[in-house]
Amino acid sequence: MAQRSALNSIGHAIGYGAWLIKEIYVAGIDATIAAFKPDTGMHPCVVFYPMRVSTDWERFWFSTSITATPGTLSLGFRHAASEEGRDLLIVQAAFGDDPHQVIEDLADMEERLKPELKDTPIDASKVLWKPYEHLGPDRDHEYAEQLPAAERMD
Using CA atoms, how far apart are residues 26 and 100, in angstroms rounded to an integer? Predict the structure, then answer.
């Protein structure tokens, strides 16, 4: 049996779409609830996710699905650093207090997009990520006073 590409069957497309809509609503409700808490729980991180999908169509759907889900944003693609490496998708997760869970959730989304990927698991402990680091207000830099107020971060 020939390997099917992502979303090429109507049934799979409907199932993936329904799952994605549910995820968007759940994430939206979670983000709304967090916005009204004194501690929002936002611990942003950036994940350098090694993609298993390969076609432009699959990459489009994967990155768009991430961006459509509240609390996550696809920042861009990077080509593999070596022949045996995978292309990376850079993803920011606003609620990234557990980066390994973020990575596992991305892997789950990718596998729902293309079920054949379950045969190629991802080890979340080997995926690179970094926490957001606040570098302080721009006034700490010598050039900040020359910037217009709209461009300063103070």
Answer: 20
3-state secondary structure of 24: helix
Is residue 96 a contact partner of residue 43, using CB atoms and an 8 Å limit?
yes
**Segment (H or E) for 10:** helix 10-35
Is beta strand 72-78 parallel, antiparallel or unpaired with respect to 88-93? antiparallel
Strand partners for 30: none
Q: Where are the beta strands (DSSP E) in the chain?
A: 45-50, 72-78, 88-93, 128-131
8 A C-beta contact, residue 69 and residue 75: no
For 130, the token pair is: 């970094």
Q: Give me Rg for the CA atoms of the chain.
A: 18
Per-residue model confidence as pLDDT tens digits over 65-108? 999 999 999 999 999 877 778 899 999 999 999 999 999 999 99
Q: Tell me if 30 sits within 8 A of 112, measured CB to CB.
A: no
| pTM, two decimal places | 0.82
